[in-house]
Amino acid sequence: IAGITQAPTSQILAAGRRMTLRCTQDMRHNAMYWYRQDLGLGLRLIHYSNTAGTTGKGEVPDGYSVSRANTDDFPLTLASAVPSQTSVYFCASSEDERNTEAFFGQGTRLTVV
Amino acid sequence: GQNIDQPTEMTATEGAIVQINCTYQTSGFNGLFWYQQHAGEAPTFLSYNVLDGLEEKGRFSSFLSRSKGYSYLLLKELQMKDSASYLCAPMDSNYQLIWGAGTKLIIKP
């Protein structure tokens, strides 16, 4: 079944540890996004990629990095996790970055302790 | 700055009609999306408006007024499964979605 997959589904992480959240899509979408969702706030864009080989910073990029080596994969790395990065992380993709429907992964619930 | 305003929570009765309002201020405008998000799940696309007026899709309709910075989502014949959060998200001049915090809709029998 075509779609977008995130791993892991949930994780408890010690502060200071490095962590990579994985995201893969098989829809051949050009654009991919990483959001975090916190209670009472809207989805906030962390990083995005409009096409393989390019990435950009969103609203809350500090403490996170991404890469887009190919069309399908868009991993998000926390270099040294802090408790304020406790959140639900959603990866999403769309055909392109302009005016098209975004498809979301099931989310990764990350707790930094 | 960019700002989205929608009610935090609404309650409606099964079988009834509910209207969820959204007002927005963005730097430029390239359309507005509505998404549905059930608790613990990912958002899913409901509608997209780029021109003024009403777009109807089954039980759900979405309205846009660009001059007023206003949109609403209309849900008819409410069902229990419609209990969810509804996210308003206009797209700015850089084609970035600006997300509201969402309206939690509670449906009562």
Tags for this entry?
heterodimer, A: 113 residues, mainly beta, 7-stranded mixed β-sheet, 4-stranded antiparallel β-sheet, 11 strands, 0% helix, 45% strand, B: 109 residues, 5-stranded antiparallel β-sheet, 5-stranded mixed β-sheet, 10 strands, 53% strand
Structure described in brief:
Chain A has 113 residues and is mainly beta. Chain A has strands at 4-7, 10-13, 19-25, 31-37, 44-49, 56-57, 64-66, 76-78, 87-94, 103-104, 108-112.
- Assign a percent range to the helix content of chain B: under 10%
Taken from the alpha-carbon principal axes, the silhouette of chain B is: globular
As an assembly, this protein is heterodimer
Question: Which structural class matches the secondary elements of chain A?
Answer: mainly beta
| Pattern of helices and strands of chain A | EEEEEEEEEEE
Q: Helix proportion of residues of chain A, in percent? A: under 10%
Rg of chain A, nearest Å: 13 Å
Strand pairing plus helix content of chain B: what structural class?
mainly beta
Number of helices of chain B: 0
Task: Report the principal-axis shape of chain A.
Answer: globular
Q: SSE order of chain B, as H and E?
A: EEEEEEEEEE
Mean pLDDT of chain B: 96
**Spatial strand sequence of the major β-sheet of chain B:** 1-3-8-7-6
Beta percentage of chain B is: over 45%
If you average the pLDDT of chain A, what whole number results? 95
Q: First CA to last CA of chain B: what distance?
A: 40 Å
Largest sheet of chain B: 5 strands, antiparallel
Low confidence ranges of chain A: none
Descriptive report:
The complex is a heterodimer of chains A (113) and B (109). By secondary structure, chain A is mainly β. Chain A contains no helices and eleven strands. In chain A, 36% of the residues are buried. Helices cover 0% and strands 53% of the residues of chain B. With 109 residues, chain B is an all-beta fold. A five-stranded antiparallel sheet of chain B has the order 1-3-8-7-6, with no helix packed on it. At the A-B interface, β5 and β10 of A face β5 of B.
